[in-house]
Design brief:
- The chain is α/β, with parallel strands linked by helices.
- The protein has 9 helices and 14 strands.
- The radius of gyration is 17 Å and the shape is globular.
């Protein structure tokens, strides 16, 4: 596994968190593009790419650099698959749509995709920076890369639980509601990996806590359902767990789920 920095030289705490880094082959043929403490994944097959999640509006130049580092171009991106429609995963979607990239999303998240700031979490967000001040640099970095200027989308194809997508990598869709109503994970059994989005993270942006966990109720619609959906993830038996925030967990989905259940939901 090799890392490539695809952003400007960092300066200061916020600048460090703005840094975009490409990590190649975090699982076979799956590359991680990390920007402002948020992850997208590039699934490579036969010279074509499936992009999983779309980061922030200003992430586009980093995506182009990452593709170039892989010997690919924007024309090689055949699909954008969204694990869910929160603003920090939707950022580049409108631009990719305009470039002709097909977008896949679970229908239950269509209202959020159309209006990225309209979702209602289980608990009010405003008090979390006071309770968890260590999260402030994370949230500030997200704002600085366009988190408050994400354009909604209405054009997308429907993801269905259990379906194997006809896109590069052929991931299998697993419904994992709770974080949002239409949250999904993507299982790639031939690569022993599961892309879990925000169904399970190793960095909670709202608390700055690390280790496998469910995202805080400040951004999760139904914490009890989110915890229940961990059973679906455990059923994959995957060795590589690829979250929407934080470092990949390479010790197996079983241990990640056990840790997340023990951590509970803030």
């Amino acid at each position: 596994m090799t890392n490539t920095t695809v952003a400007e030289r960092p300066f200061g705490a916020v600048r460090r968190r703005q840094r975009a880094v490409l990590r190649r082959d975090i699982a076979p043929g799956i590359h991680l593009l990390q920007h402002a403490s948020t992850n997208a994944y590039l699934i490579e097959q036969g010279g074509s790419i499936t992009l999983v999640d779309a980061l922030f509006p200003s992430s586009h130049r980093h995506l182009e650099r990452a593709l170039s580092a892989l010997g690919r171009s924007p024309a090689d991106v055949r699909a954008l698959v969204l694990t869910h429609a929160h603003f920090d995963h939707l950022g580049m979607a409108a631009g990719l749509r305009d470039a002709g990239v097909p977008i896949w999303l679970h229908p239950a998240d269509a209202p959020i995709a159309a209006h990225p700031y309209s979702y209602r979490p289980a608990r009010p967000r405003l008090l979390y920076p006071l309770r968890f001040p260590a999260a402030l640099p994370i949230l500030t970095a997200m704002v600085s890369v366009g988190a408050l200027s994400v354009q909604g989308i209405r054009e997308h194809s429907a993801l269905e639980h259990g379906a194997t997508l006809d896109v590069p990598g052929a991931p299998r869709v697993l419904a994992t509601p709770g974080h949002t109503d239409g949250h999904v994970a993507l299982h790639l059994p031939d690569r022993d990996a599961v892309i879990v989005g925000d169904a399970l993270v190793t960095l909670d942006p709202y608390t700055a806590k690390t280790g496998p966990r469910v995202v805080a109720a400040a951004a999760t619609n139904d914490p009890e359902l989110a915890l229940a959906s961990l059973t679906v993830l455990a059923g994959t038996g995957a060795g590589a767990v690829l979250p929407g925030h934080g470092e990949p967990w390479l010790e197996g989905i079983g241990s990640a789920v056990d840790a997340a259940r023990a951590a509970g939901v803030d």
